[in-house]
């Protein structure tokens, strides 16, 4: 049951009847306090997920109502319950969501507004959605979120963005605080808030092929043109998982993750220094959930979840392991720059088929008083659909 910020007064009569018919109410302490009924009230423990099955087993056979804020399926407990018990066993009764209320206060249409949740997540997630003129509704984790968000915006060159913090939306204590990211100095406010962001800053495309300068690296990076070619063949699909093996700067896994907010990636890198650099790059480019595994392939691959796609940018000794791990229908792309590693790919092409190409990239550069071509190392690329 979704409960609005004004509690019992904001609930419809049918919603009140449902709550009054319950024998036990689960929910956060704030929601439970908003409902004046005599049912047994059980506040969620912390951490919640490990205790969830035990709570429901303890009250098996009773009529249970779970209270949530607004829309229970918007970064809420409803999603967890549906995944655990199945949609056929959970009935969701939503109230007006905080996102709908925020858009109403700002006068923003649904189709021109992107929602980013940082509830229990890194505030760096917002970086992926930044674009000149974009309108974002950020679901806050707590009262500190607006200040953290302002810091991230300034660091990304979006200091001119306007922030509107909307607290206790729909309740009697609703409040609005405004300012620009560049000079945000408001004190910590109510923990129940969302932030509307009117973005002003430089463009950074979401299509593969970001400039190499967008990444912190030590030279071990899949360069822009080669990265775009690899990602075109890896073919990111929403919600799929990529292994980026021998990740270097993490550029392929990061661009895979930026292609859709549901995409997942695991960057495998044996150098601890580079692994830390990958995480910094992932934060800065808006995909902080990218998982970094430090260790040598193929040994560290054994316990990883089954990938939908694999990029092998270094350490072709793991190629057969990656092929075996790949699910049917999955894609693999591998690069080689030495004669020895090129032979590994040639052998793989002979055994499995796929596509084998060589990519030579040259850049125009000054040559005395003229302009000449400076070639980069030619790269052999093998791509394969399992």
UniProtKB/TrEMBL annotation:
This is Precorrin-6Y C5,15-methyltransferase. NCBIfam families: CbiE (TIGR02467), CbiT (TIGR02469). InterPro entries: 4pyrrol_Mease, 4pyrrol_Methylase_sf, 4pyrrole_Mease_sub1, CbiE, Cbl_synth_CobL, Cbl_synth_MTase_CbiT, Cobalamin_biosynth_MTase, SAM-dependent_MTases_sf. Signal peptide: none annotated. Transmembrane segments: none annotated. Keywords: Cobalamin biosynthesis, Methyltransferase, S-adenosyl-L-methionine, Transferase. Pfam families: PCMT, TP_methylase. It comes from Amycolatopsis deserti. Pathway: Cofactor biosynthesis; adenosylcobalamin biosynthesis. Residues 2-181 form the Tetrapyrrole methylase domain. SUPFAM superfamilies: S-adenosyl-L-methionine-dependent methyltransferases (SSF53335), Tetrapyrrole methylase (SSF53790).
């Amino acid at each position: 049951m979704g409960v609005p910020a004004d509690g019992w007064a904001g609930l419809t009569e049918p919603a009140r009847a449902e709550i009054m018919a319950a024998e036990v109410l689960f929910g956060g302490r704030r929601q439970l306090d908003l409902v004046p009924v005599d049912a047994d009230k059980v506040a969620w423990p912390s951490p919640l997920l490990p205790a969830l099955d035990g709570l429901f087993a303890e009250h098996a056979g009773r009529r249970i109502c779970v209270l949530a804020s607004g829309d229970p399926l918007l970064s809420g407990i409803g999603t967890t319950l549906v995944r655990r018990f199945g949609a056929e066993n959970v009935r969701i009764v939503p109230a007006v969501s905080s996102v709908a209320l925020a858009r109403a206060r700002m006068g923003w249409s649904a189709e021109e507004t992107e929602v980013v949740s940082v509830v229990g997540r890194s505030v760096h997630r917002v970086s992926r959605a930044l674009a000149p003129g974009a309108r974002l509704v950020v679901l806050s984790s707590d009262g500190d979120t607006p200040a953290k968000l302002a810091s991230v915006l300034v660091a990304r060159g979006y200091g001119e963005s306007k922030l509107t913090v909307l607290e206790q939306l729909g309740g009697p204590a609703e409040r609005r605080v405004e300012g620009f990211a560049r000079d945000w100095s408001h004190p910590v406010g109510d923990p129940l808030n969302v932030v509307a962001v009117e973005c002003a800053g430089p463009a950074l495309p979401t299509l593969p092929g970001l400039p190499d300068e967008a990444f912190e690296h030590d030279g071990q990076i899949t360069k822009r043109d080669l990265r775009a070619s690899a990602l075109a063949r890896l073919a990111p699909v929403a919600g799929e998982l990529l292994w980026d093996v021998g990740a270097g700067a993490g550029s392929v896994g990061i661009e895979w993750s930026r292609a859709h907010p549901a995409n997942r990636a695991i960057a495998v890198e044996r150098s601890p220094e580079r692994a830390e650099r990958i995480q910094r790059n992932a934060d800065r480019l808006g995909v902080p959930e990218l998982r970094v595994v430090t260790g040598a392939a193929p040994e560290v691959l054994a316990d990883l979840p089954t990938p939908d796609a694999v990029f092998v940018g270094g350490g072709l000794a793991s190629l057969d392991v990656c092929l075996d791990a790949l699910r049917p229908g999955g894609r693999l792309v591998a690069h080689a720059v030495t004669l020895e590693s090129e032979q590994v790919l040639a052998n793989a092409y002979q055994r499995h088929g796929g596509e084998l190409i060589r990519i030579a990239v040259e850049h125009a550069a000054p040559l005395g008083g003229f302009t000449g071509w400076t070639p980069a190392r030619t790269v052999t690329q093998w791509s394969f659909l399992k």
